[in-house]
Amino acid sequence: EANMMNLSRSVALISLFLLPLLSFSFSVDNPTDRRVLVLLDDLSLKSSHSIFFSTLKSRGFDLDFKLADDSKLALQRYGQYLYDGLIIFAPSTERFGGALDSKSIADFVDSGRDLILSADTSASDLIRGIALECGVDFDEDSSAMVIDHSSFSLSDGDHTLIAADDLVKSDVILGKTKIEAPVLFRGVAHSLNPTNNLVLKVLSASPSAYSANPSSKLSSPPQLTGSAISLVSVMQARNNARVVISGSLQLFSDRLFRSGVQKAGSPNKYEKSGNEQFATELSKWVFHERGHLKAGSLVHHRVGETDEPAIYRIKDDLEFSVEILEWSGRSWEPYVADDLQVQFYMMSPYVLKTLSTDKKGMFHTSFKVPDVYGVFQFKVEYEKLGYTTLSLSKQIPVRPYRHNEYERFIPTAYPYYGACFTTMAGFFVFSFVYLYHK
Amino acid sequence: MMARCLARFLVSLLALAICNAASVSHPISDSHRSAALDVFVPLDGSYKSLEEAYEALKSLEILGIDKKSDLSSGTCENVVKVLASPSSALKDVFYALSVNGILKCKTGEDVPKDIVSKLQAGAKDAKLLLDFYYSIRGLVLVKEQFSGTDLTLGDAEAIFRSVKALSQSDGRWRYSSNNAESSTFAAGLAFETLAGVISLAPSEIDQSLIQTVKTGILKLFDSIQKYDDGTFYFDGSEGPISTTASVIRGLTSFAASESTGLNLPGDKIVGLAKFFLGVGIPGDAKDFFNQIDALACLEDNRFSVPLILSLPSTVISLTKKEPLKVKVSTVLGSKAPALSVKLAEALNSKGSSVINNQELKFDADSATYFLDSFPKNFDVGKYTFVFEILLDESANEKGYITEAQTKVPIAATGAIGIENAEIAVLDSDVGSIESQKKLDLTKDGVVSLSANHLQKLRLSFQLTTPLGLVFKPHQAFLKLKHESQVEHIFLVKTYGKKAELVLDFLGLVEKLYYLSGKYEIQLTIGDASMENSLLSNIGHIELDLPERPEKAPLPPLHPTDPYSRYGPKSEISHIFRVPEKLPAKQLSLIFLGLIVLPFIAFLIGLTRLGVNIKSFPSSVGAATSALLFHGGIGAVLLLYVLFWLKLDLFTTLKALSLLGVFLLFVGHRTLSNLAAASNKLKSA
After folding, report:
1. Could A218 and B475 be called an inter-chain contact, meaning their C-beta atoms sit closer than 8 Å?
2. ipTM of the complex as predicted
3. Rg of chain B on CA atoms, in Å
4. Residues of A in contact with B674 (CB under 8 A)
5. Angle at Cα B524 formed by Cα B521 and Cα B528, nearest 5°?
6. Which of A48, A150, A388 would best serve as a mutation to test chain B binding (most B beta carbons within 10 A)?
7. Domain OST48 middle, which positions (chain A) (predicted)?
8. Is A354 within 8 Å of B568 when comparing Cβ atoms?
């Protein structure tokens, strides 16, 4: 067991190192997934979660429903992936059918493809293992559920139907429209691996939550408590593959989508829970309908010129610009932000400047080349919560002044010039006097 | 096989979870009606196929939503087209007639003759169950919709027999005689078909034939699937919802068509109703239709009409003194006949009975049965209420049935009294109290304590239920949170009447990672029965722990805050090398002036000395060479100026070498002229 764990951990580590090396799966022009494999442990989930699936279908996704133990399961054929995305709604599956296992799912993510994984109470080791590779640890106690005696849905006598409203503050992940109604959640708690900084909580539990078996007395303190409990998390790998991990399968169900909600201790009563909006917006993010950036090439030239020089001289004034577009699910739209930065970099950044945007996707700045010569790089490294990472660079050498580029007539030297020339004039006059005086 | 078993197990697991969540079935309500409008949204004013149109219209009709006028024009056009065309498939004709039954696109005496003969021929020549189904049901629909035609089936009994021939010994049916695979779904279709044959038959069908079908129906009920909570369903490759709906439709029409009546097990019919209600609101149009249609069949049939007991809330608040409300209605939510509801038993979590045989009062205005007084010993906690429905004699005509007993989990909640909350720091060895504070747990941050590793922290409080008994909450945690975000959770256990936690810091230093400093103290008390669950930041304690030994474990890492991890970095601008500090230009000019002064003094000195150039040669040749000589010197000096201004060293040296040779020559001439002139003067 322990060995397995180590093994899977090292696989995860290796895969993290390999991620940047692997190529992008999406076509560069159209990064949204199209073909999605949906693995279910029971075909009745297709009807009990039909709203979620039909919103996906209505957005143009081609869903392929399969039982998780279908013996013909395969993600790739002849080395080509058959799907762009994977939804695993099979929390109790101990073993996938066909050629699918946790390693092939890790490879699938490593190839830049996306995954929605939903566990539930009594999630199998297989599902836990896949989550672990994404930096998510589910509560080891298989009978444990998230319990919250302060923020539960009033319709629930067990306090296991959590009305969660601690959402990540990110428009790109959850959309611009605020999710007003609490999100209903019934399921298992997880925590995030602190060494993995690619994973983050999207829906967190309240400080009074804890993870335990609701029907038995606690004999030892629960492993997970308070806002350390994550209910739904997302991971964006270094290759921009996106993963959503939820501790509740019911969160996506028609029942909770349609359910009204009133949070305990709150006078607000909502006709409809926030689940549908939450799940829909999250699926837009995970399938790259939002937050996917594309950059044009880095453009730079001296002030007043238009052509890119082959080399800069120290202290040149230069102008830098780059075009950044965001994929809207259908087309590339100009990206607007005020936190894009460029570095002029040689071993360490010599200049780091924030770019200003013209709101049409172009970002500009200008600065003076430092008085250090060598081979520099323009570097744009953009990491923003929920957005794909941009890492662009362009090399440019910088040379010192040439001998004839220094200042020629130095005022300080005027006395020396004067001394020379008066001596010469004196000599000229003296030559007459000396030779022709009588 | 394995997989199938597993899948079945999972269905039950899932359904169990669903049923637990719902805990009790609810009849179809307004939420279904509003959902129906979302589910059955036509694309551009009409549905993709007549089948979909029928399912949508039928569901909306059952739910009492009138959308016919919006949809009729486009859909009716299709119906008329299909009914007019002789080449339409049986299936399309069937669905066209079904839609026509709702929208009444084509009515009256004007019987579509072609269609009737087509259906009659279809029924006669059919080999497949589906062909029988579409043609016979089609004829039934024609009979219902168009008056005045003789639609009787010529050889009804033969058709009955050939349909019956497709049945299997286990009550299921085959789709065709060539295909050995039988299905429960097909059985439902067959029952409907047979019901159609009976109603279209000119003379009565042989009773023994009908009897064999009835035996088959009972056989089919042997294969019914069951959940623990008394929910029944039929499973099949079409999925449980479609399969069960098909069977119920078949049974309803079969029971309606013949006179002797079907005697079906009542608990299973209630179980089937509970199954459909337990599905909730399907998001899929097909499932939605199957659910609503099957429930409509259960609402109005000739075998038994199930009544459903539902509770608006399964949580009773003892502080609000709300009565426990129970509603009884049919599956579609219409009014139940006269009846009484009895609370047979209320069991607490230990299984002992608290309330026995109490009849609920009836409020006719809200059609609600309620229990407003609870016995004195009824405390907070989890209960299982067992209800029984007793139908009045008069209601029995319609064949109403109910569950024998409905078990409902009920949570009784109340305000828990919190008393004698105290927090104290004790000296370890003698146990004497160093500092003790009364706590008001409703206020935050009032306590500030300090302790070292030789002392103890004691926290105690008493929890009592509204009846004054000791209450043991599910959640009673003390959380110590260090400044560095390291957290420690301790359980507060209940001993006797008191909940107490004693933290002996000497034994805890390792667990606390030897982290001295300020710890926030947070107390969480909560329980499903507790209405005043609380999360209280009591205050803080300043701990003075020994130094960390080298081998002691390090505190765990904490995930970094995602908001601070990203975001722009602070700007860096390059600091350029400061240029050498130069004197002011004016100073240089002043010194330039000073430098020029000696030259001016030299010129003035020369004039003062009265210098002259009287010995400048007067002869043309000598004067020329002298002028050339001085011109040469001037040119060299000028060259120097030019060198300073713009020439490079190579040009300058080249020019200088030429000028040098020239100067040597003219200089020699000039000097020899001067020497000759001075010799002449001496000799003179």
Report:
1. yes
2. 0.76
3. 53
4. 435
5. 175
6. A48
7. 300-438
8. yes
